[in-house]
Design a protein that fits this description.
With 332 residues, the protein is α+β, with helices and mostly antiparallel strands. 23% of the residues lie in helices and 26% in strands. The strands form five sheets. It has a five-stranded mixed β-sheet. A three-stranded antiparallel β-sheet has the order 3-4-5, with no helix packed on it. A three-stranded antiparallel β-sheet has the order 8-7-9, with no helix packed on it. A hairpin with a 2-residue loop joins strand 4 and strand 5. Helix 4 packs antiparallel against helix 7 and helix 4 crosses helix 8. The mean pLDDT is 81.
Length: 332
């Protein structure tokens, strides 16, 4: 059997943002939980001489003098195998030719073509088709596995987190979803025509609503930035107490978000409040000109936040074994 005949293909689903990241060359890694090995503590990679040195992983747990073991093959394949990408589809309006429903890729709104080159005639039960249900013929590209290994979830490095497709814009989007009920407001102040300064709060921080009220009350002009002001702490409106968005100085990053060199004491890290998530989102958006410097750290925290949101509360802290797959894109 030659190498080409030995290559196996398997499906793998991705969300629309990650599909776009693969298309743009930003995503070259993915991590998936290893099933049914939660009770094991150690793992080693073994090459099977009876199966052309194909690797498998032996999980073990030592309990006194006894040792429990379980051998597991990677369900996604080995180096050289391929993964065809499954992505979400949605139904557009019926076409004029026979009233057939037109399907589109959710990632970029491009039409789905069947093997014959015509728009797919899909009998939709719902307006969207989740990625796990996409048929093989609709897949427009595959990936080739370049590395497959087992590691703990916490082992993800800053470089690996970036390779998961988490550029700073994607990080900002992830953190904004984690903000919850925290409101996004700006910092402003007031000035009278005679140069006197009316009351603008105990610390000088007012949100947009309160600054409007104060301006009308004092017949003053509003001054300030239309984006964000800079502070070393997380400020709140002196009148209504709402969280204020802000850019962060280096000091603010280290103190408020634990971006220190001593990462062992601050890792694993998840934004535990709307304030922290909002600060992370603003940092990833470029506030304080620090986003590039902290891109890797932001990507780590964004990955942890995504993992928690997809797998449930406590999923990140559980630190499970994961398959860490490195791949390259291959067009269909």
């Amino acid at each position: 059997m030659n190498k080409q005949e030995a290559v196996k293909e398997r499906p793998i689903p991705f969300s629309s943002p990650m599909v776009n990241a693969i298309h743009e060359g930003r995503k070259t890694q993915t991590r998936r939980a290893v099933k049914s090995v939660e009770d094991f503590t150690d793992v080693v990679k073994i090459l099977d001489p009876s199966n052309d040195m194909r690797p498998f992983w032996r999980f073990s747990l030592s309990d006194g003098e006894a040792t429990q073991c379980e051998d597991v093959d990677c369900p996604y394949g080995v180096v050289g195998d391929r993964l065809w990408v499954k992505e979400a589809l949605y139904a557009g309006p019926a076409s004029s030719g026979g009233g057939r429903a037109v399907a589109y890729y959710a990632a970029d709104d491009l039409p789905v073509l069947d093997p014959g080159g015509c728009l797919v005639d899909w009998r939709w039960k719902r307006s969207t088709l989740p990625s796990i249900f996409m048929p093989r013929w609709a897949s427009r590209f595959s990936t080739e596995i370049e590395d497959a290994r087992v590691e703990r979830l916490f082992d993800i490095s800053e470089t690996d987190a970036i390779a998961e497709g988490l550029d700073v814009e994607t990080c900002a989007s992830v953190f904004r979803k984690a903000v919850g009920r925290a409101r996004r407001e700006f910092g402003r102040w007031l000035e009278r025509e005679d140069g006197s300064e009316p009351y603008t709060g105990e610390n000088g921080y007012l949100c947009l609503d309160c600054i409007d009220k104060a301006a009308r009350c004092h017949k003053a002009e509003k001054r300030g930035w239309n984006d964000h002001f800079e502070t070393d702490s997380t400020p709140y409106c002196d009148e209504c107490g709402v969280l204020l968005c802000h850019s962060l100085t280096e000091y603010g990053v280290e103190s408020a978000l634990a971006f220190t060199e001593d990462k062992e004491n601050h890792w694993p890290y998840l934004p535990v409040s709307g304030s922290e998530a909002l600060s992370l989102a603003e940092l990833a958006s470029g506030m304080g000109d620090l986003r590039d410097e902290h891109h890797g750290r932001l990507a780590q925290i964004a990955f942890a936040t995504l993992w928690e949101s997809l797998n449930g509360k406590g999923a990140w802290a559980a630190n499970p074994f994961v398959w860490a797959i490195t791949f390259r894109r291959i067009d269909a």
